[in-house]
Amino acid sequence: MMSIPRRVWLVRHGQTDWNAAGRYQGITDRPLTEYGLRQARALGEYFAGRKIDAVIHSGLGRTESVARAIVGLHRIPCLIDQAWREASHGMWEGLTYSEVAQQYPHEVAARLADPLHRAPTGGECLADLAERIMAAWRGLGRAHAGQRIVVVTHAAPIQVVLCTLTGVPLSDHWRWRIDLGSVTAIDCYAGVTILRAVNVVPPIKR
Prior knowledge:
This protein is an alpha/beta fold. The protein has one domain (7-90, 124-200): Phosphoglycerate mutase-like (Rossmann fold), CATH 3.40.50. It has helices spanning 17-21, 34-48, 61-71, 97-103, 105-113, 126-143, 155-166, and strands spanning 7-12, 54-57, 78-80, 148-153, 183-189, 192-200. Strands 3-2-4-1-5-6 form a six-stranded mixed beta sheet, with helices on both faces.
């Protein structure tokens, strides 16, 4: 029988300054804003009463901050797996869409024409991201069979998993809304997965 985890929660990190400014942010490491830290605390409270066996994060500061908040008082491993990182946006990193459209109009047009295989200069295309993320997804079964796992990651990796599990074309990944500080829960069974929840945003206390 194929090894599978029992349940996986996919968590998107909290807000950074580049998120707030609408800037492309992939592999660039930006810290959480004050609001992002409040989102991290809300996620910690969300998981406080739930049984989890391990927390994995992508190795960037914005995911580690959330992972540490979720681990909290749980005596469980907090692990790094860089395979869960966001796609690199190459030369687009740190730019707004308007700046990208002005500086790289031909790349924008090429990516719109072929969203799966075209990437910014020095960046990662969606097809390559999907291959990396789904390999990481399968790795959860091998490393955490039968366990309840939280993966703190980024928007596109969560969208890739949802597309792949539900048969939605990867080019339509944007149809899955994945907010900052949100939780997506997936129950895993032999040969089938069930979406328990998608894009749940825990309330933030004042």
